[in-house]
Amino acid sequence: MSLKKVILSFVAVIYLSLGLAQQKSPTVEDVLTKAQQVFTTTPSYAIDINYQMFGNYTKTVAMEAFDGQMVKANRDTYLKINNTIFLTSETKKTNVKVFEDEHVIEVSEKETNSLMTNSPVYIENFIKLFKNKTIVDKGDYYMCTLTTDVITQVPYGKIELFIDKDSYVITKQVLYFLAEYPFIDENGKQQKGNPKMVVTLSNFKKEISQELTEVTDIKQYITKTGDFYKPSATYKEFKIIQN
What we know:
Elements (H helix, E strand, L loop, with lengths): L2 H20 L5 H14 L2 E11 L9 E10 L2 E6 L2 E6 L4 E6 L4 E5 L5 H5 L5 H6 L2 E6 L3 E7 L8 E9 L5 E8 L3 E4 L5 E4 L2 E10 L4 H5 L7 E4 L2 E4 L7 E4 L1
Parallel strand pairs: 6-16
Antiparallel strand pairs: 1-2, 1-13, 2-3, 3-4, 4-5, 5-6, 7-8, 8-9, 9-10, 10-13, 11-12, 14-15
């Protein structure tokens, strides 16, 4: 190989190294913001959710588990957690909670949005309330850890968020509770500990069926005559509570 080729090859390696060095790794704030934007800027989507509650941080057998689903159709959003449904209609400026076990439907036309509080895809409050944030690159996903040493509006002292690198979709959350709660262990004995909840999100899709779109429609649950609401035919046995 000629001296000229050697020099050119050496120069090319230097430029490549400098280019790689100048590529900044994303900050935890960047990743969390992009993860939130996936769900706030996508007009319509559906995602499946699984919840597992563990008696304390080290338990590997869940003491309770249940499924859920979240569907957004333009300005209407549906969230089901076990046997409770949360609905928010920005078009009708109405929030609805359906308690299937209790046969109760709560209706509110106030600004408060309970869906924002309960949905695992809305992490804006986490970003604001947790002052300590770290990020670890795990190859095909980021793990963001949020901690706080002061009491906040949420009951957690630590949160781990797993975010897909390509899509920035949140795939899992691990929530560590600050307070102790009683629980029954796998041997049937009553214990007390700081619970841990694992929320797994899967099957994210931006194109949703007509059937899924319909679950976000408040008319499926309640109708309004004048200033008063009544349950739809499907929920005719339910009691309406207006807030």
